[in-house]
What we know:
The chain has four helices and six strands, in the order ααααββββββ.
Amino acid sequence: MAKERSEEEQIETGDQVEQAAEVETPSAEEQQAAEEALAEELAGGESALEEEIASLHQQLADHKEMVLRAQAEVQNARRRAQQDVEKAHKFGVEKLIKELLPVVDNLERALSSINTEDEAQKAVAEGIELTQKSFIDTLTKSGVEVIDPAGEPFDPELHQAMTQVPNPDVEPNTVLDVFQKGYRLNGRLVRPAMVVVSKAP
């Protein structure tokens, strides 16, 4: 009896092992399908990672460009501010210079109207001349340049022609006389010189 039971148990155990072996071992087709599914899943994961990496690279490039633009804007603003400060230093006194120029003109007119032959007026003329020279020197220190173009070719950027006079002795468009001197402040024209210009007879 014991022998028969042990043989039956052995047979049952062998059947169970065979069934388990049958269950655990998939067929070649199933194995191939499983491998293909795993490969597709891995490929899909790689593709998603590549897309995410590409997106991050694009975002990085965009942020770099934004930073570069911001830096350029800051540099431009700084440069403009510096230029404005330089202009303020150079041309801040332009309005004052324009208001002082008539004083220089009046001193010149006073000098031209005095008779220097008269001893009584000679001292006055010397005083006015020294005052005018001191005035011009002060303006020159501030960057003012006198434009007195008598005998020079006419320059429409610096001179204002009041009239033209025929003159065979000089080249046409030569400044014959200066009614009123012009002035420049650090290279910028403050007032053009008013002149008489020659023309061909």
